[in-house]
Amino acid sequence: MELFEIKNDQATFSPTALMLKPFAALWKRDKTKGKKVAISEMAALYFYVDYKSDFSTMLDPEEKLKLIKSVIIGIPDKWEPDDVFDEACSFYDSMQETEATLLLEDAQYAIQSVRKFLRTVDMQAMDDRGKPIHDVKKIIDSLGSLHKVTEAMFELQEQVKKQIQKKDDTVRGGKGKAMFEDGV
Questions:
Q1: How far apart are the first and last CA of the chain?
Q2: Which of 13, 20, 51, 136 has the fewest CB atoms within 10 Å of its CB?
């Protein structure tokens, strides 16, 4: 699903996006000239939720939204997400959800847990009997296989991007686009 179109070097809502209630609600409530807040909210929504977004690897939702909010042009300083924005995010997220996206999300959280463990593990920690709590050899062996994990994560990310692109390339009614439908 494409939320934006670029016309005359300006980002505008895709006409199909405005036909969907959650996105239309963002548009209709904005009373600013040129709908600058609505456009900024849609940009924030895209960067916050879309798997193709450069921010998609940030897993902490608060950190992600804080960073996005700080770099989006036109969003008011005191802007905070509300129910209308949250509903649009949930809707957009559900529209791109597949088994692969769910697996990618789970894999990202698992890798984040491993990273947190590696950053906080105390190799000198001892139990009550004076024996090391952690097996250093197992940790070192695990570190040796991290390249396999990163390769698998990269492959899964690429699979998700291809799957989403294939979904985006399918037009309404489940039919594929004609050969020159996008132009030459």
A1: 21
A2: 136
The pTM (predicted TM-score) of the whole model is 0.67
User: Alpha-carbon torsion 71, 77, 80, 85, what sign?
Assistant: negative
Which residues are CB-neighbours of 41 under 8 A, at least 6 positions away? 26, 30, 75, 79, 85, 88
- CA separation for the pair 155, 149 (Å, rounded): 10
Half-sphere exposure (Cβ direction) of 87: Cα atoms closer than 13 Å: 10
d(C-alpha 128, C-alpha 110), whole Å: 30
pLDDT number for residue 25: 95
pLDDT digits (tens, 9 = 90+) for 7-36: 776 667 777 888 899 999 999 999 999 888
User: Which stretches does DSSP call E strand in the chain?
Assistant: 4-7, 10-13
Q: What are phi and psi of 82, to 5 degrees?
A: -125, -170
In the predicted model, what is the mean pLDDT of the chain?
Answer: 83
Distance of CA 24 to the CA centre of its chain: 21
User: Other CB atoms closer than 10 Å to residue 111's CB: what's the count?
Assistant: 17
pLDDT of residue 15: 78
CA 70 – CA 117 distance, rounded (Å): 30
Q: What is the CA radius of gyration of the chain?
A: 22
